[in-house]
Write a structure and sequence with these properties.
229 residues; four-stranded antiparallel beta sheet; Double Stranded RNA Binding Domain; disordered C terminus; 15% helix; six-stranded antiparallel β-barrel; alpha+beta
């Protein structure tokens, strides 16, 4: 499995060879450093700890700095990736070249926080009638039972905090890799605001739908990557 920590730059649009417009997200991936390596003999499993975004020395506490090898500059973001492809060593740096030739990726990030929202925005409730005289418009309606069980069942769709949680977009097409500018061009939207931290990994889901998407991405990758450069 391949993975890189990046930062969302924003969205743009590309054009395929047939002239169709392709929305894409630009992700900047500064060189990731390998902070640690987990081995079956010592840890019971195989994984690699990636780090990105250097920290100023005065921002680093002694307990946090203890995670890094001698001479390694502490970084802000740390992600442990199991079954990492290849055999990197502590201190190695990885760039966007890692995804050269890839067709589909998964992008994980923190979705935009939308604050406290009602049931219509948060869960898509239709609401009540908009006519005069109706006193039921955007309210959730009845939420529980009277005699039995005399309480609100857990998991009821109600108003509450919306967004600001981990979200993953699966099977996004990788249109291009710009190694010179450390950029990945990913088809479609990605979670979070501009400047948000993202984790780009290999697409985990398989099946016939993925194979069809790969062949389509291969057809537009050559033309669209040239448009973005």
């Amino acid at each position: 499995m391949k993975a890189l920590i990046g930062r969302k730059v924003g969205m743009t649009q590309l054009f395929a060879d047939d002239g169709s417009l392709l929305p894409a997200t630009v992700i900047r991936v500064d060189p990731n450093v390998v902070v640690g390596v987990r081995t079956p003999e010592r840890d019971g499993y195989t994984a690699v700890v990636l780090g990105a975004d250097p920290l100023r020395p005065k921002r680093v506490t002694k307990p946090y700095a203890g995670q890094f090898a001698d001479g390694m500059a502490p970084v802000r973001h740390l992600v442990e990736v199991r079954d990492f492809e290849g055999a990197p060593s502590v201190g190695d740096t990885l760039g966007v070249e890692l995804f050269a030739g890839a067709m589909l990726v998964d992008v994980q990030g923190t979705s935009k926080g939308k604050g406290f929202q009602g049931v219509m925005k948060r869960h898509g409730f239709h609401g009540g009638r908009k006519s005069h005289g109706s006193k039921f418009h955007r309210a959730p309606g009845s939420i529980g039972q009277s005699a039995s069980p005399s309480r609100v069942v857990k998991g009821k769709k109600m108003a509450g905090r919306m967004g600001g949680t981990s979200a993953t977009m699966h099977n996004l097409r990788l249109y291009g890799v710009d190694a010179e500018r450390h950029l990945l061009l990913v088809g479609g939207p990605c979670p979070g605001p501009r400047g948000g931290t993202l984790l780009v990994t290999d697409a985990k889901k398989g099946g016939t739908r993925n194979r069809a998407a790969v062949s389509l991405a291969a057809g537009v990758a050559g033309g669209s990557s040239g448009e973005a450069s």
